[in-house]
Specification:
It contains ten helices and twelve strands. By secondary structure, the protein is of the alpha/beta class. It folds into two domains: 156 residues, 3-Layer(aba) Sandwich (D-Maltodextrin-Binding Protein, domain 2), CATH 3.40.190.10; 116 residues, D-Maltodextrin-Binding Protein, domain 2, CATH 3.40.190.
Length: 308
């Protein structure tokens, strides 16, 4: 079953309120005395940066408050590691298990769902492993391994690499024991897709980056994700988290919360909804919904110390 794309209210951009922490006010797009001229450091995934989404999303925020956003693109693991070290104010990532570890360790606060797309399994058109008829990502990976068809991995502890390892685990396989057909790309999503293209290989890609690069490479989708009716295992949710100022006093927490308020506001979510590359929608907003879930997010497995 296809993902039910959440609907959110469409209102005039000028009426879109930004839920800010503290007492920030709009000063006719000239910034405010409190934050004017400051820089927000955002560590984020390569997919949000390389697709151009962040340029579109950040410009109105920078213009309104007279600030700049320094977006540092890297894999989710590296993005969270920089935040752990106090080298970021806010993180935008897409690996829930890694996010949970970050939150459980106390490094992140005020996490919000932001948007989603999905992962797809792509490869050359002749499909040597014969996976094009599969609607099961795990079975597709098993076929790739059984036929020893070339596969390129991100290999970088990114959100995509984390999902890849999850699928191999579901298939009862380990990337540690694979043969020469399994290539460790060790780079970003764009680099991995280019390597797969040159090698005539399969890879796991986020839909947004693949669609953005589709005209530049000779690869096609063989196994769809849930956006187009594929398995839920390939769902790719993105979250945004402020770095905890109680752990790192140097972080710009007020500006981080202003940014989180903006990207999850009507205006920010509408920008995500309307952003296109090659006439394709790359991301789907998830912060606002007509049937919102008001339950506070808690990482899976957390238990309260209280008796109730």
């Amino acid at each position: 079953m296809s993902i039910q794309r959440r609907q959110f209210m469409t209102a005039a951009a000028g009426a879109a309120g930004i839920g800010l922490a503290g007492c920030l006010s709009d000063d006719d797009r000239g910034g405010t005395p409190d934050i004017n001229g400051e820089t927000l450091t955002l560590t984020t995934t390569t997919s949000t940066y390389a697709t151009g989404l962040l340029d579109e999303l950040n410009a109105p925020f920078e213009d309104r408050y007279g600030v700049s956003v320094d977006a540092v693109p890297e894999g989710t693991g590296a993005a969270l590691e920089h935040a752990r070290n106090g080298d970021a104010d806010v993180v935008m990532v897409h690996a829930r298990t890694l996010e949970d570890e970050f939150l459980e360790a106390g490094y992140g606060v005020n996490r919000r769902d932001l948007m989603f797309n999905d992962f797809v399994i792509v490869g050359e058109s002749d499909d040597p492993a014969g996976i094009a008829s599969e609607d099961d990502a795990t079975a597709a990976f098993e076929e790739i391994a059984d036929t020893e068809s070339t596969f390129v991995s991100r290999g970088d502890n990114s959100g995509t690499h984390t999902k890849e390892r999850e699928i191999w685990d579901e298939a009862g396989l380990s990337d540690d024991g694979f043969g020469e057909w399994y290539l460790d790309g060790g780079g970003g999503m764009g680099e991995t897709l280019n390597t797969a293209n040159m090698e005539g290989a399969y890879t796991l890609a986020d839909r947004g980056t693949f669609l953005d690069m589709r005209e530049e490479i000779d690869l096609e989708i063989h196994v769809e994700g849930p956006v187009e009716g594929g398995p839920e295992l390939l769902r790719n949710p993105y979250g945004i988290v402020a770095v905890n100022p109680a752990v790192h006093e140097n972080v710009n927490y007020d500006l981080a919360m202003a940014y989180i308020g903006y990207v999850t506001s009507l205006e920010g979510q509408e920008i995500i909804e309307e952003y296109r590359s090659n006439d394709e929608q790359l991301f789907f907003p998830e912060a606002l919904s007509e049937d919102s879930n008001f339950q506070q997010y808690v990482p899976e497995g957390w238990e309260s110390d209280s008796d109730g």
